[in-house]
């Protein structure tokens, strides 16, 4: 068995048939599809039973009581028989070549432990919104970006079974479990994002409730703070909020914001370089990521020329920006 696909279902009768069909219609056929019914109370169970009866590749697992997403994912991992394990959400879609392309990529790159794909967003009716999650990332850039935000759409990930068996942290991260898991994994293996749209992520009312978004933010903050502390940093509440704002590109042309960013990014650059002193490629990746953020701050609309000029040649700018970039900032200051 080459691939095990985990599709967890809880009260998803409206969308789950389309999600299942998108897996069963894959060009790659050496897979099993684990449908896990997490004690649904709607019509999902009957839908899953019908698919299990019609296709021998489908295995139906019934939770006698609702365990929740993270615990059920860990249960499913123990049941998987495939060399690779792919995730799939009950309201999303996989394009027909997804499994073939991801398995081929992992076959060709034995140093990559897991991979995601680019993702397009669709609305509740399955119509593409035009928004896409796309980034050109090396494994090292993924690692560096993960100190600010998750680089992966959960529904797009395929990983080697030996890494999947490290499991999600169900006890401490009932949500944002994927971000926490990938953060652990990028420290022990390489990750990749295949630069092709192979999954569609559905946006609908159940997926974007205010309470869900707030809980997700809380657990994201917990993960990021934990990782900064591993680097030896102890950010103040103001520094931590600034760090998250920079990662979200929620920046300000205000002089106080630029000064605080200058101080914090220098701290982060120094701590990261010390922590990963033996990994020059990773240090260079973080330098590029921080350089991108810092350049965005200094070239944003509305920033005063005097502020741009003041920070064009600071120690942080000399570390993160090329000579040409610094010269262009100085020229803009003089115009």
Could you characterize what this model shows?
By secondary structure, this protein is α/β, with parallel strands linked by helices. It folds into two domains: 3-212, Spore Coat Polysaccharide Biosynthesis Protein SpsA, Chain A (Alpha-Beta Complex), CATH 3.90.550.10; 231-334, no CATH class. It contains 14 helices and nine strands. Strands 1, 2, 3, 4, 5, 6, 7, 8 and 9 form a nine-stranded mixed sheet that branches.
Question: Which band does the percent of strand residues land in?
Answer: 15-25%
Distance between the termini: 64 Å
Strand tally, please? 9
Instruction: State the CATH topology of the largest domain.
Output: Spore Coat Polysaccharide Biosynthesis Protein SpsA, Chain A
The tally of domains stands at 2
The overall pLDDT average reads 95
Low-confidence stretches: none
What's the main sheet like? 9 strands, mixed
Q: At CATH's second level, what is the architecture of the largest domain? A: Alpha-Beta Complex
Q: What percent of residues adopt helix (DSSP H or I)?
A: 40-55%
How does the overall form come out from the CA principal axes?
elongated
Helix/strand-derived class? Answer: alpha/beta
Give a brief outline of the structure:
The chain is 47% helix and 18% strand. The protein has helices at residues 16-24, 44-54, 69-79, 98-108, 139-145, 161-164, 177-185, 210-230, 237-247, 255-275, 280-298, 305-311, 315-320, 323-334; strands spanning 3-9, 31-37, 58-62, 84-89, 93-94, 112-122, 128-133, 158-160, 190-202. Strands 1, 2, 3, 4, 5, 6, 7, 8 and 9 form a 9-stranded mixed β-sheet that branches.
């Amino acid at each position: 068995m080459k691939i095990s696909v985990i599709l967890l279902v809880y009260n998803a009768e409206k969308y789950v048939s389309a999600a299942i069909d998108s897996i069963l219609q894959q060009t790659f056929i050496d897979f099993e599809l684990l449908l896990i019914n997490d004690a649904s109370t709607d019509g999902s169970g009957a839908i899953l039973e019908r698919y299990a009866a019609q296709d021998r590749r489908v295995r139906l697992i019934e939770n006698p009581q609702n365990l929740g997403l993270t615990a059920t994912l860990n249960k499913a991992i123990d049941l998987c028989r495939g060399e690779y394990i792919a995730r799939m959400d009950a309201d999303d879609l996989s394009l027909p070549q997804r499994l073939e392309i991801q398995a081929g990529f992992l076959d060709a790159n034995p140093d990559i432990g897991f991979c995601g794909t680019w993702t397009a967003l669709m609305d509740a009716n399955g119509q593409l919104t035009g928004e896409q999650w796309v980034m050109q990332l090396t494994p090292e850039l993924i690692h560096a970006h993960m100190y600010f935000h998750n680089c992966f759409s959960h529904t797009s990930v395929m990983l080697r079974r030996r890494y999947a068996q490290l499991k999600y942290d169900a006890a401490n991260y009932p949500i944002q479990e994927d971000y926490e898991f990938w953060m652990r994994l990028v420290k022990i293996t390489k990750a990749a994002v295949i630069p092709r749209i192979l999954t569609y992520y559905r946006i609908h009312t159940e997926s974007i409730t205010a309470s869900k978004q707030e809980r997700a933010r809380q657990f994201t903050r917990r993960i990021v703070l934990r990782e900064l502390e591993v680097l030896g940093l102890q950010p103040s509440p103001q520094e931590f909020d600034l760090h998250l704002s920079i990662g979200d590109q929620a920046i300000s042309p205000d002089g106080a914001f630029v000064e605080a960013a200058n101080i914090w990014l220098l701290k982060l650059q120094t701590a990261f370089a010390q922590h990963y002193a033996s990994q020059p490629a990773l240090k260079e990746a973080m330098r590029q990521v921080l350089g991108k953020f810092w350049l965005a701050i200094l070239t944003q609309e509305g920033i005063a020329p005097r502020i741009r000029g003041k920070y064009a040649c600071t120690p942080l700018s000399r570390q993160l920006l090329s000579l040409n970039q610094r010269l262009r900032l100085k020229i803009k200051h003089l115009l």
